[in-house]
Amino acid sequence: MEAARYAGRPRERADGLAVPLLQGSAATLDWRPAVEPGMLSHVSDRRRSTRVALRAGLPGHGSAGRARRAVGRLAVALVVAVAGVGCMPLPAGLGSLADRPVVPLGHDGRWFTDATGRVVMLRGMNFVEKWAPFTPAADGFDDDDAALLAANGFNWLRLGVPLEFVMPAPGRVDSAYLSSIADTVRILGRHGVYVLLDFHQDGWGPVTHGNGMPAWATLTDGLPNPPVPFPLYYVLNPALQRAFENFWANRRGPDGVPLQTHYATAMRAVATWFARSPNVIGYEAMNEPWPGADWSSCLTGCADLEASRLAPFYARMTAAVRSVDRRAPCSSSRSCCSTSVTPTRHSRGPARPTCSRPTSTR
To answer: How far, CA to CA in Å, does 284 sit from each of 58, 102, 220, 256?
Structure first.
């Protein structure tokens, strides 16, 4: 499990609360061999082993776990006792697992906030179906899995919605796919779990031996496409690099429509489906964008490259989401190989006034 990653320093508030917003994948549980990190997949085939893995990797089991549980129960009892005398409200999430209402969240820039304006810390994991059967429901994820997440303290899920599945053909949104994702979002909401919808890709798409981007959006100009595995395909596959470059250049797809126009249509369609979902707290435009063949400059920071390629893309995607959902924030990532030493430029200025700052996600 990865360590939690926080963006920025905690915010100091008058009420004494100083809690940073959790950005990126707070905790990633991997149920398959470590070929592609960030996976929670194939639940139905390993339902029993999934539970064993969760319970083995999380606190609360064994003699030490019993001691921690006892301390936890005492802490909860103290909170309830204080709430009973009216000194403080009972924090959300301390009710029974069967009755965990989703408390609507707002945001102040990059910070998620509750109804009183306090900064909210979320504890979550990454869940991206990258191959068949494509949806969590088809893979066996259901109510008892959501209950298991909530029971172990998770209240946030970064849920993948790759363009490959949202728009399998140019301009055609797969309503059945989004309907299945919506069912999963509702199940998670019943257990108090918030959702960030992630337009995920790794290594561009299946054509370039990755996942996430459909074949119709893969313009490689006939460059060599060697079967190099993750993560080396980013630096050793010319076809993959050219596919990214053509996307940043907004080349026209097979139907004559620019690729980013189709991408924005897909993001607008997803935002339309979930604009009224109380537990959907944001949209991530792209996981780990890759600059293309000119990637080496990003090892020491490539603000100019990000300003020329990522900034127009994020502005376009933000506008698409904002046309149907003005509530949930957008989130973005720096170039995949970019360090955090050099400030990026696409997080400033008027181009992205309603999006959170870039996050590093896997």
So the answer is: 27, 21, 25, 26
Here the tokens at position 201 are 């890709």
CB atoms within 10 A of CB 19: 15
Residue 336 to residue 362: CA distance in whole angstroms: 10
Q: What's the pTM?
A: 0.70
* pLDDT tens figures, 44-78: 333 433 333 343 344 444 444 444 444 444 444 44
- Neighbour tally for 256: CB within 10 Å: 7
Domain residue spans in the chain? 44-58+103-358, 61-91
Name the CATH superfamily, with its identifier, for domain 44-58+103-358.
Glycosidases (3.20.20.80)
Model confidence at 273: pLDDT above 70: yes
Q: For residue 197, give the amino acid letter.
A: L
Q: What SS3 string covers 161-203?
A: CCHHHHCCECCECCHHHHHHHHHHHHHHHHCCCEEEEECCCEC
